[in-house]
């Protein structure tokens, strides 16, 4: 029983360390997902800037076309023969200038919007650089912890291998079967007439059987092996 209790102490630490190690890849995955999400924010700003630049280019081409049309109308102005035609042409020239002015305002507006996005992008790049540094540091901490766990597990496995030969093979088989089905906890104490594995009541007659140590006594509820601390 003494060896079995010692084995449980080792196996409890092994179980906890393996559980912690198993959770580490998901921690890294979650961190990577958050970092990628932040990168997507920068990518969205870059796309927005490209869209604004394309809109500005289109408007500049439209402005050039309007200005060229205005020049052609201006050139035709003095070849007109009647006052009516002259007035109509003047109106067309004025309309072309008005259209060009509206387009020019839009070009300037797009310039301002692009400048704001560029400033926001630079700020976001700075934040992202800092986030990348933090991410790398946190990831390294997790990787270092995994190495630390692996080292400790190697030590515990060696201690376990030294202890196992001192345990009756049949009892060991029973213990390991319970260990695998009860979250790494196969043997527990009885305290204040309660099983410390499931907190259920243990009758006095069962406690008496445990104290006799003639055979392994298990909890009727959780099936863990029971023992008395002293």
Fold topology:
Blueprint: H1 2-77, H2 83-163, H3 169-181, E1 187-191, E2 194-195, H4 204-212, E3 225-227
Parallel strand pairs: 1-3
Antiparallel strand pairs: 1-2
Helix pairs in contact: 1-2
Structural notes for this entry:
By secondary structure, the protein is mainly alpha-helical. It has two domains: 2-166, Orthogonal Bundle (Helix Hairpins); 169-227, no CATH class. Helix content is 78%, strand content 4%. It has four helices and three strands; from the N terminus they run αααββαβ. The longest helix is centred in the middle third of the chain and has 81 residues, at 83-163. The chain is rod-shaped. The mean pLDDT is 92.
Q: What gyration radius follows from the Cα positions, in whole Å? A: 40 Å
Poorly predicted parts: none
User: DSSP strand (E) fraction?
Assistant: under 5%
How are strands sequenced across the largest beta sheet? 2-1-3
What proportion of the residues is helical, as a percent range? over 70%
CATH class of the largest domain: Mainly Alpha
Query: Largest sheet, if any?
Result: 3 strands, mixed
CATH topology category name of the largest domain: Helix Hairpins
H and E string: HHHEEHE
Count of distinct strands: 3
How many individual helices?
4
- Cα(first) to Cα(last) distance is 12 Å
On the 0-100 scale, what is the average pLDDT?
92
Structural category: mainly alpha
- The total domain count is 2
